[in-house]
Amino acid sequence: CLFSVTAIRGGDRRLSGVVLLLRDVTRLKEVERLKSEFVMAASHELRTPLTSLGMSVGLLLEHAVAGLAERDRELLQAAHEEIQRMKALVDDLLDLSKIEAGRIELEFESVSVATLFDHAKAVFKNQLEMNGVSLTAELDAAAPPVRADANKITWVLTNLISNALRYVGKGGHIALAASVIGPCAHLSVRDDGPGIPPEFQSKIFQKFVQVQGREAGGTGLGLAICKEIVRAHGGAIWVESAPGQGSKFIFTLPLAR
Ligand code: ADP
To answer: What gap in Å lies between CA 42 and CA 152, rounded to an integer?
Structure first.
């Protein structure tokens, strides 16, 4: 049930009444849940044929390439890239719909932020070298552990790092950092890329919002998934950025007791 309260004041500004508006959102929530269930079922069904289609076209590209005309090879390559893109979209949709339908179970444990950073850094070892990008992690050795599902938070970190990697360009720098503020740890991923215009900074956490529209290799769902995962941990996520001055994505996690 959603409610809002409005105060009514007389000419002398004294309170003369209150309007309390109650709105029953049970049906709305049920519609949202059914929508997530439908997206979940559809993306689940699409995943298997897309995987085999991707494998078949991939094999064709590998083995039949010598006998193919240049134009046919280009067409096959384009089809392969689109299949990979569609598969990434379907995977993201499946993840997001599962979270929205309350179908993910978090396996909470007490885990150090250093371990989470190490897991995420390991994923990018080769990619960083290939792209000439440096990645540093700065963290207080005495920082207490957080209460988190290590796999899911590693997913959040890797998504933020892969976005940063996409925007920093050769010679760029990505910095991971963590600090403790009150009962929470603040984890951040900062890059020296192009930054994000202020009017987009809250919107990019919504589904399918991209600053340039259909950005290379992206689905527009990564940050929406990050937000849901962080929210399921009882935390919050936001970005601090200015055009030309890089971006810093920050999220909070509760400390383990
Ligand atoms: P995508 O699959 O497009 O990366 P995300 O939800 O992860 O989807 O990000 C949404 C949009 O936010 C991106 O398309 C991009 O416009 C912007 N964005 C995300 N991370 C960065 C970053 N580090 N620097 C600049 N822009 C970013």
So the answer is: 23
Ligand 1 within 6 A of CB of 172: no
Q: Nearest 5°: CA angle at 249, between 138 and 220?
A: 135
Token pair recorded at residue 136: 């540093």
Six-digit token string for 90: 């379907």
CB 3 within 8 A of CB 22: yes
Number of the ligand 1 atom closest to the C-alpha atom of 212? 16
User: Band of the pLDDT at 240, cuts 50, 70, 90?
Assistant: very high
Cβ–ligand 1 distance for 204 under 6 Å, the answer yes
ipTM for the whole predicted complex goes beyond 0.95? yes
State the amino acid at position 59 in one-letter form. Answer: L
Candidate of 85, 200, 210, 226 to mutate for ligand 1, largest count of ligand atoms within 8 Å of Cβ: 210
Question: Which residue has the least CA distance to atom 2 on ligand 1?
Answer: 218
E strands in the chain? 2-9, 15-23, 109-111, 134-139, 146-148, 173-181, 184-191, 237-241, 247-254
Could you tell me if 135 and 121 are in contact, meaning their C-beta atoms sit under 8 angstroms apart?
yes
Give the tens place of pLDDT for each residue, 24-41: 888 888 888 888 888 888
Give yes or no for residue 208 CB within 6 A of ligand 1: no
Q: What is the pTM of this model?
A: 0.81
d(CA 128, CA 169): 10
Tell which wins on pLDDT, 65 or 31.
31
